[in-house]
Amino acid sequence: MTASPPPATVTLTVDGHEVTVPAGTLAVEAARAAGVDVPVFCYHPKLSLAGACRMCMCEIGMASPPGQPPRPPAMMTSCTTRVSNGMTINTMAPGALKAREGVIEFLLINHPLDCPVCDAGGECPLQDNSHAWGPKESRFEEQKRLARKGAALSPLVVLDQERCIVCYRCTRFMDEVPGEAELSFFNRGYTSQLRTVGDEPMKSRFQGNIIDLCPCGALTSETYRFKARPQDLDHADSVCGQCPVGCNVMLDTRSNEVARVRPRQNEAVNEIWICDKGRFAHHYTSSPNRLSGPWVAGDGGELRTSSWAEAHGSAAVRLQAVKEKHGGAAIGVIGGRNLTNEDAYALARFAAEVLETPNVDFRVGAETAVANPLAPFGLNAFNTTLAQAERAGAILLIGTDVYDEVPVQWLRIRKGAKAGAKLIVANPRATEADRIAFQRLRHRPGSEVALVTGILAALVETPPVDGEGVARDLSGLSDAIGGTTVEVAARHAGVKPETVRAVAATLAGAKNPLVYAGARLAIRHDAPSLGTALGNLGRALGHPECVNFFVEGANGRGAEFAGLVPGDGGVPAGEIIARAASGQIKALYLVGENILATHPDRAQALAALEAADVVVVHELFATETASHADVVFPAVSIAEKDGSITNIEGRVQRIYQAVRPSPDRLPDWRILSDLSGVMGLGLGYVATSEVTRDLLADIPAYASLGGKLPGSEGAITREPADAGHSDSWPTIAPVPVFEPGDGLTLVTWSELVGNETIVAETPELLTTVPEAYVEINRDDASRLGLVDGTQVEIHGPGGAVERVLRVNGRVPAGVCFAPDNLGSPRINAVARHGVEFTVVTLSPVQEAALIGGR
Amino acid sequence: MSLSQAARDRIVNDFIPRYPSKRAALMPSLWLAQEEAGWLGPEVFEEVGELLDLHPTDVASVASFYVMFHRRKIGDRLIEVCENPSCFLNGSDQTYARICDRLGLEAGHGGHGMQTTPDGKFSVRPTECLAACDYAPVVQVDLRFYGPVHEADVDAFLANMEAFSIQGKPSVSMANGPQAVPVDGWEGHAPPAPGSAA
User: Fold this and answer.
1) Chain A residues within 8 A of B42 when measuring between CB atoms
2) Could you report the predicted ipTM of this complex, rounded to two decimals?
3) Residue A27 and residue A32: Cα distance in Å, rounded?
4) What is the pTM for the complete model shown?
């Protein structure tokens, strides 16, 4: 029996209007296509179907089979009914109106109607639908249900159980989108309660989205609680400045302060989600701790407030002196990964034209001057769109914890994996992605080149086969990997050869493979080798453009495009600090970069700040680095800026000013333009639009924009390919195998939310940041006599810090992991820059006072 | 209160292979865990969740849906008195009040409110229809039916439950459900030591 293919479209009638929609469309969506909004509570297009609230009842009639008597229409929930040919949907049938009225009356029996003191009041679907469809009077005269009010589900989300209408939007979101089913309904019926197990606070970094999804004010934001009424808010479209994904956000302001951040829909970037860092960490923009007015160091080195003119004059004189005495190359410029394109462009011009230095880099800690490891292949560092992860057949994540590095893209990767993408996670550390991984590679730290070489060797052994069954000719690749075998490469990487072969087979068999490499790998000394290896991998798979490197910072890609990377003869950011510490570089120009916290070697960063003749800093806050500066310029935050930023995939997106800055703070481009004027080489900008105009004309990647910033969707941009690239198989420069010897190899990464300055200004978010910790393996712990949960001291070549020990089975032996954005001092206090991997020792902290006390 | 190795093995080797999805093995797994300990503690939600790839909140949420899963420690024996119409018309409210009175508990807790004697020997609660209306008023002790138990019978019932056992009426049938241990005297009789009932 051959089934005829189902029709691609069906035609039906909604309230008398004929409409044609794709087969399989839900009745509620078909009605929307016909311009009729059916009221809903539980239905949400991004979530699975629940059919829980019964609000969307319509009178729906089905066409009868030929020769059969007509079937009477029936009341159906339009959110769970798929359309069929000849269907009639009557959204305004008397029965439908009565059903809706009944549902509203029923829901309002238990809803407290405390709208006057509810944050959702004025933007509440329950309110709106009650107004539009509900009965005028309630017949309910009994005592209303009493339940938990103002209960904290976490430090960030507040539950009012009385308001809850049990639509399951929040629990479905947590289970289906981030896959963290930590919230659920307990008990049933009348006694249903939204809870977590043991009433533990929710831990997900995506929990804020349930506030947006809640249709009845049951879930509200702790930080926005009772702060404003929706009608009092002003709104500005912006882009989140916390990570390279570039989620579209709406900044809601009241009295010229950001009251809350909400996601804006952009299906190409964040769909409708944002992470909790983007949502909650905005209080820094209006913090009283912000710098106000410039600072200049006096003769004794102590900083004092000054006028703009004095600060500009002082910086100009000091920088000019270094330039004249030692040349422009004696000035190092670091920063730009979190600035706007306008700021980045002005900084690049300032460095090149005014300071005349090639030593410019936005990539803090970078060990290679190569900004784009894939340039030899004629590729950008990032070549796909974020949305492509949804349609991938296999996704290789190498050296990246996507949950922390590109949080909202992790939701997209999960979506892809749910749709069938085989997720391959290669990371020395266990990450959230492991939970849905198809294959896992727990390779040795630093062995990524060997690992990818191993995958290439496996592909040479068994080349991918195309649609016609013809094997790809990979004979040239064998030379590129220097004849390395899978066994040798696997041994170097510390993984099993059969796993490497299995991973290669997965990638070779996938229709649309996708490779994501972590941003840290793109700046490490062996990044050019890894770029060559991954570029070859893309070519071997027949998808050269499937390879992508992440980048750090909200506008790292924009900074790269703007040219904030080492110029001819220039050195990378890590080397700039090293040279400043050794006295070769005499002046440091740091833009929004607290190098004492972010440079991998704190001692060296401190030495650099102390040794440098001149340190100029642009900052929002009086950071530790700023306290070592000679001149500090107070900059404005992203909420106070106009302009554009470019996300990880090269998408240029517009941001609009939400908050008028105080005159004591200026945008970075303006500070630079004014300073250049004092130095006699004026950039001459007085309006953002002038910088935008010039950068769109000057920056090669933005040629495709045609001199205009794109509209609300943004537009993908690419750097033009180098002319010199070839189509052969470039040889992968071998990377020496790292042998740790005694001690533990320290591997660091950044948690999504650390105790950074901007997080510290949102105390509710700060309380969710764990105490700084270090993770080691059970065997290492027992060998060293260390106990889980106790304080240990980590000794490294740079010094020692104390951390809480976490012992678990997910860490390989011989390695310890510590996040680099937790604790004070940071883990960079033990590390040494220029050492390939820091080897540390752990010892228990002797708590003498406690021993005596017991 | 953790799962025994035997229970873990049973879940992995017997329950999970029975179903197309791991989640489907949740109910028998929870029942097995409750058989072992008499109730379900937070560790059980963690451990069952780990075995079935479920978040502990999800596990606890399912357990909370069913009144026959206990998320708090209950008495050694669970006495449930039907409060639905047939039994109520036959005076089950008085039976319930009398049982509570004899055990030193306060009657009058509606819904599924459960009370436990301070010595932890008995828990008592009203329950919904037990499908044994012909023996109204019906009392269920550890999933075994007894009846009719009128108010005047309560002392005798507590002294010798087996005399009220409903012949030919099977107990609630659950694979490997707890088997009631006959107790032939109540007053002055030492109840079974905790754990020996199962």
Assistant:
1) 197-198
2) 0.86
3) 9
4) 0.92
